[in-house]
Amino acid sequence: MRFATGTTVKDFDAYGAWLDVAADCGFAMLTTGDSQSLWADPYVSLAFAAQRTTTQRLGITVSNPMTRHPAVAASAASALQHLSGGRFVLGIASGDSALRNIGVRPGRVDETESYVAAVRALTRGEKATWQGADLVQRWKPGPTPVWMAAEGPRTLRAAGRSADGVVLSNSLTREAYERNLAHIAAGAAEAGRDLADLEIWCMANIVPAATEDDGIAVVRSVLAGTANHVFRFTTEGKGLPDTLVPKVEELKRRYDSTHHASPETAAHNAALVDELGLTRWLAAHSTVAGPIGHCVERLAEIEEAGIRNVIVAQFVPDQAAFMRTFADEIVGRLG
């Protein structure tokens, strides 16, 4: 298995120290997100990371088609490719907290797919079209892999048709992973491509703790955020049991996006998953928690299900200590 990890950036001195530990712990890729109202700009953050690191890939997981014109994103991506020596990866989704916090709607599936195609083309020095306008980048391109974050059947098929890779949430069970791969493969076939042409990465909360329940408790607000994102447009085709559909609808109605991805300030969101009886189901699809030995066993099961690339979320109080524990005591014990 390959492991990536990421953080949100609010203090660059702290981020520099985080990058040093992450690089030392052997993570293959270091990521940050794009939510301008909640943390620092990801292109600025990864420009900083490009100067601080030497070998790790650097990824935005993820941006969106609504806050940046594709020509702007492509120019920024090319700059990061030049600055990093070709280590940058750009992830795109329809948009969540970045848009909710400024009153902008998410991108539609067709918009997101067209945006991915436009950014990919521009970073390769090719012409592109966006909303009827012809685009070209007139300075040195920096070919950039563009991934899509996808959860539902339509978006998964779109990713299979047009993206270089796919970022999956709620996919840590065999059933969920195989269902999502089938949709990606179908989209790839529509474009004359093969599933093997795409990199597939799964998001995972990994939380060492005295017990599984203790670890899950740490990321309850993250479970709420993931559910709000994954099911925000529809619950259909995403493996959600019928008995949980009204509970997820209630969570979406009451979710507070101003504290998205902020466990330390999101007590309201954390309480929702317990109140609505969603905690266990959500955790099974997104979280590895508990004693070290149990985490190792769960990751081995995940690998056996076919998952090879995992982006480790760091919604834990001490990220540096977590990374060292993860590298030394968990990865070190995987076969």
Q: Which features would summarize this protein structure in a list?
A:
11 strands; alpha/beta; 335 residues; 14 helices
Question: What would your notes on this structure say?
Answer:
With 335 residues, this protein is of the alpha/beta class. The chain has a single domain, classed as TIM Barrel (Alpha-Beta Barrel). The chain has helices at residues 12-24, 42-52, 70-84, 97-100, 109-123, 153-162, 174-190, 212-218, 220-230, 245-254, 267-275, 279-286, 292-304, 319-330; strands at residues 2-6, 29-32, 57-63, 88-92, 128-130, 133-135, 146-150, 165-168, 199-208, 287-290, 309-313. The protein has an eight-stranded parallel β-barrel with strand order 1-2-3-4-7-8-9-11, surrounded by eight helices. Strands 5-6 form a two-stranded antiparallel ribbon. Helix 1 crosses helix 2 (42-52) and helix 9 (220-230) packs across helix 12 (279-286). It is globular, with a radius of gyration of 19 Å. The N and C termini lie close together (9 Å). The relative contact order is 0.13.
Write the layout of secondary structure elements.
Blueprint: E1 2-6, H1 12-24, E2 29-32, H2 42-52, E3 57-63, H3 70-84, E4 88-92, H4 97-100, H5 109-123, E5 128-130, E6 133-135, E7 146-150, H6 153-162, E8 165-168, H7 174-190, E9 199-208, H8 212-218, H9 220-230, H10 245-254, H11 267-275, H12 279-286, E10 287-290, H13 292-304, E11 309-313, H14 319-330
Parallel strand pairs: 1-2, 1-11, 2-3, 3-4, 4-7, 7-8, 8-9, 9-10, 9-11
Antiparallel strand pairs: 5-6
